[in-house]
Amino acid sequence: MAENRASVYGEGVPCWVDAQLPDVEAGKRFYGELFGWTFEDWFGSFAQALKDDEPVAALVRKVDGRLPTVWTVYFATPDAPALARRIRDAGGQIVSAPVPAGELGVTALVTDPEGAVFALWQPEEHPGFGKRHEPGTFAWAELYARDTEAANTFYGDLFQEALFGEDADPDFGRAPVSDVFPTQMPPHFLVHFAVEDVPTALEDVRRLGGRVQAPPFETSYGEVAVVTDDQGASFALLRR
User: Which residues does the UniProt record annotate as the domain VOC (predicted)?
Assistant: First the structure.
């Protein structure tokens, strides 16, 4: 099963997301109620989220209080060290060099030339999402950049097949930071989760202690609202 799942995530396809949180147990309560997730605890500080018994995300305990409380998107690759070198050569940075994550795969943390952070995933026993594009699962990642033309060039060169190939069905786009956020906001990726109804989901976010950063707005890929959880991690709700 893992081998079959891995085959659908070509290089440059978003294949996983995780949240770095100060309190994983609080995260379980928030996201469990919001999205109907259940959880498997791994390695003490890592909880894998399941939707209908399929892996959809992870919550990870933040070990350094100086690190941001964030959702991170992972892009699939068959060779994380080689992709990390290409990213560096294209003007990006390697924040954390490729390292094995047990028997699950190989991971690295990198940035694009503007500093937007994303991760790489070279799958072994853990191929990535078992379910996506359904309510309560990953649906999209939007890069909010200062220079969208430069971003298109950088990611287009890295992930040509995933973005522009014959069978491309990309799960991420690029937009100016100022479209949604204050102009001083750093470039970043925003992880989107699918919901059946955005206003209802916003009510749930507020009830659970989160807040609304940007009320619903229309995009080329659906209706979106930007929110934070009760620990400050930002994400988006998307109804296609």
Answer: 13-123
